[in-house]
Amino acid sequence: MLKEIRRNKTKFIWVLVLVLLLAMVRLLEQNLFYDPFLLFFKAEFQNAMLPDYKSVPLFFGLFLRYFLNSALSVAVIYVVFRDVALTKFATILYLIFFVVLIVMFFGTLNFSEKPDYMLLFYIRRFLIQPLFLVIFLPAFYYQKKNS
User: Fold this and answer.
1) Rounded CA separation 138/72 (Å)
2) Are the beta carbons of 14 and 79 closer than 8 angstroms?
3) CA 142/CA 147 separation, integer angstroms
4) Is the CB of residue 105 less than 8 Å from the CB of residue 62?
5) Distance CA 2, CA 66 (A)
6) What does pTM read for this prediction?
7) Which pairs count as long-range contacts for 114-122, CB under 8 Å and 24+ apart, including other chains?
8) Among 32, 37, 96, residue whose Cα is nearest residue 65
């Protein structure tokens, strides 16, 4: 394994830098993004009232965060696999998932009398965290290894 790391030093450094940038997005979340649900979901939220929120700034805050996480995640995928077709495929998946998740999030928020907080929590989690990277990397690796 150490020989592999030495041979791919540049790739390893780029992945490390990109992962650190993903961590910075998380670290600076309260300063960079409008998201009244940050504190709501950190507290005991099951019996609480939803916080007041403004839909348009919330949408753009979620969009910006998803975009930053997705761009950095796609960069990691490119650095690891050096495959343009795979990178384009991942980008398309990220776009499709954004549309589906954002519609589900705002649909649940706006069209439910009493929204399911756990459903909101998990949809929002996929929008604000780079969870798809954790899913895509092993999946793409497995696909490459078996093709």
Assistant:
1) 17
2) yes
3) 9
4) yes
5) 34
6) 0.90
7) 115/50, 117/45, 117/46, 120/37, 121/41, 121/45
8) 32
- Rounded to an integer, what distance in angstroms lies between the CA atom of residue 126 and that of residue 114? 21
What are the structure tokens assigned to 71, written together? 């761009």
Q: Is 46 strand, coil or helix?
A: coil
pLDDT tens over the chain, length 147 residues: 567 667 788 899 999 999 999 999 999 999 999 999 888 887 777 777 888 899 999 999 999 999 999 999 999 999 999 999 999 999 999 999 999 999 999 999 988 888 888 899 999 999 999 999 999 999 999 998 898
- The tokens of 102 are what? 């954002």
Do 46 and 117 contact (CB within 8 A), yes or no? Answer: yes
R_g (Cα) of the chain, nearest Å: 18
- DSSP tag of 33: -
Neighbours of 54 (CB within 10 A): 11
